[in-house]
Structures are given as C-alpha cells and as structure tokens.
Amino acid sequence: MMSTHSQEGGISFSRPGTGNGKRLVMSVGENEFAQPAGLSIKGFVRRKGITNPAAVLRGDEVTLLGRLIFEDEYGDNSAIVKYDGKYRGGQIEIFQETERVIFSPEEPFGERGMEDFRIAKLDGERPYHGFLVHHNGRDARTEYLRTTERDPFDLTNWERFGIWFPNIGVTEAVDLVKDQERKRWWRIAHGSGEFLGTKDCSLWPEKVKRPGPDGPETEYYGVPIRLLPDMQIVYVKDFRDLARREFWQDTVRNLDNHVLLRRKYEWESSHIGLAGQPVVVNEGVLVFYHGAVMDPERNYRFGAALVERTNPKKVIARTNVPIMEPTEPWEARQGVVSGKVVFPTAHIHLGDRIGHFYGASDDCIGYCETPLKDIYNRMEPE
Q: How far apart are CA 10 and CA 16, in angstroms?
C-alpha cells in the first residue's frame, strides 16, 4: 500500500486508510488557486474538490476522469478532468502533471458545470460510451457521447451527437404519472427546472435480446437510468431514441415496467442510484448502487444486486447491509456539501475481487478492493 504524501499542483497522492483497505487517492492540495490546464474559464478559480471519477484500467495503466469542483466569480462550478496513473497490486499512483480538462462548462445546458462523467465498454465494440451530466443552475441534463472508432482508447477525444435526455418537461412528466410519491419526488427534485432530469446513467455491459416491434427478438442497448427515487432501465437500438420526446412520454407513462431496482432497506430509504457500469461475473451481473438517507444528515453508502445477464430486471440476490459506508475522517468531514459520503462511480474486475473508485465527502477520491466472496456473503436471495 502506498504511503506517499506529496502535494504538487493541488493534488494529494494516495495514502493508506485505517484497517479496512481504503485509500485516499486524490484530493485538492495546498495549491488550491492553480488554474487547471485546458479550462475555458479565465480569471479567478479556486479548487474545492476532485471527486466521483470514471476509471479505465488497461494493463497497469489507470486513467481517471474526475469531477473537479471549483469556485469562479459567479459561484460553484465544475469540469471533467483527466489524470493518468499506475495500478500495481492494489496500489494507485496518480501523476498530477498529466492533469487536463476534457469538458469545461459550456452552453446550452452546462453553464454552471459538468457533473459526474460515466463511461462504459461493451465486448465486441471498440469505442467507449459516455454519459455526461450538464447543469445550468436549474436543470441537470445528460448527454450521450462516445470515443472514435479510429482511436477508441483516446479518452480526450469524444464524438458528440447532440443527444440530450430525458427530453421531456417536468410538468408534463408529473401529469403523466399516477404515483403520488413519485409526483412529490419529481416536484421537489426539479424545483423550478424546466426538464425532467436523470443522473447516474451508464450502459448494460452486454446487449440484451428483447422482442422487437414485429415479433422476432432484437438486440438492444440497455441504459440504466435514475428517475427518483428508484432505478430503471430503458432499451434502445439507436441512441438517438434517447433524444425523442415521444420515447420519454412512453417511458414515464409505463415507468413501473422499467424498474431495475427499488429501495428496500433502511440504509437506502431516501433514494438509490447506479454506481457506474454493472460488472459481468460468473454468477450473472453485479449492479453496484449507492443508497442515501437524507435525514437527519446526508449519509451515502453503497451495495450491490446480482441479476441475470440476459434479464436485467431478474434480481437473484441483493446486499441487505452495505458493502461500504463512511468510516474514515476524509469520508465524513465537511466537504463541498456536508454529510457522510461514500459515492462509488467506477469499478474494475480483478478476478476474485472488485476494485471500487468512489467520491468521499464530496471533495476527494477514494479506492478500495472487495473480495467477491465478501460481496456475496452480504447478500440475501430475492
């Protein structure tokens, strides 16, 4: 385990946790006023946090694409920043000098920041798929994008197609549902916003065969989404479907038919959300998710469900106690927002164990590894 405490250019490198294998991988360091390379905003910038990364491991090379939270002259803002590093037997080393902004705040929906970036890979397909959340101070809107066929491993170059979703207004969506709790959730969650929003999106790790409109089975992309307070999954043949208003009208009308996971245990009583791309294992697919309790304070923990590979809505077993919860000082301190937070956003399959990258206290990045047997031991059959 690394014990490096070097601080250069605003980054603290990996150091040990206490007794549970958790490591603090990155945090904002002493140089909080350093201008990030490639940020389109000029002038006053103060770093406040680096958190909630996407992660790619190729051999011993690890790439993190984290959310850099900063303050500018108008208030809080954020960008997606790429870092390169090394992974060797559970040890993570991040090279600060590789820091580069990939997505800066931009119009039309991201003037006040780019939020968590989720990336996914499907066997048999070269490009990485990406889901990027934009925020303009009112609405959170998700954009679909992907790397190029020519150079799919270049995580600085993403093809953008103008696919924004969900493409439906809050008022219209609320009118389409009968569930009173969901109406209440959506009104509270979206406030004065114009669009219904969804975060925590990713991609099912394999295409799913489903009956087509003409009867025969057809392969679809599965896209897990989160329309509060539970998790759903939608299916598309063409990602442009995600930008169609009619697609979301039908989804909202029939939302119960799209449920992937519902809240079940006390530690997830407020809401749940997908924690990065699900992971294929011998027994099925592991769907990692965060569970939140918001009263009397924010408390984010995370667990997993084991589901069938070909039928994502068929749950085999589910963790009845969290895989991880805040235990370290850097997971429960006053971050950008107060509360106790472990917020997993990326996982790497390491044979008999899973590596988890996660945001902690909304201002730093942690890493730990969990043996698969420990995950299964926390599960009970559905």
A: 19
pLDDT one-digit tens code per residue, 1-52: 222 333 333 333 343 333 358 999 999 877 788 889 999 888 899 999 999 9
Mapped onto helix, strand or coil, the DSSP state of residue 341 is: strand
Give the tens place of pLDDT for each residue, 287-344.
Answer: 999 999 999 999 999 999 999 999 999 999 999 999 999 999 999 887 788 899 999 9
Task: Note whether residue 1 is domain-resident.
Answer: no
Q: In this structure, are residues 28 and 50 in contact, taking their beta carbons and an 8 Å threshold?
A: yes
Contact by Cβ (8 Å): 120, 222 = no
Rounded CA gap, 73 and 70, in Å? 10
Q: Look at strands 11-12 and 7-8 and give their pairing.
A: antiparallel
Q: Which two tokens stand for residue 286?
A: 């592991």
Q: Is residue 243 part of a domain?
A: yes
Residues in contact with 82: Cβ distance below 8 Å, sequence separation at least 6, in sequence order: 63, 64, 65, 98, 99, 100, 101, 102, 155, 156
The number of domains in the chain is 1
Q: What is the value of pTM for the model shown?
A: 0.92
**What are the tokens at 2?**
């690394």
In a domain, 2, yes or no: no
Containing domain of residue 229, as a range? 7-381
Return the half-sphere exposure (C-beta side, CA atoms, 13 A cut-off) of residue 299.
13
In 19-157 the beta strands, taken as DSSP E runs, fall at 23-27, 46-58, 61-72, 75-88, 91-103, 114-120, 129-135, 140-147
CA distance 26 to 315: 35
252 belongs to a structural domain: yes
Q: Rounded to 10 degrees, what is the CA torsion of 251, 257, 261, 265?
A: 110
**For position 340, which CATH number holds?**
2.115.10.20
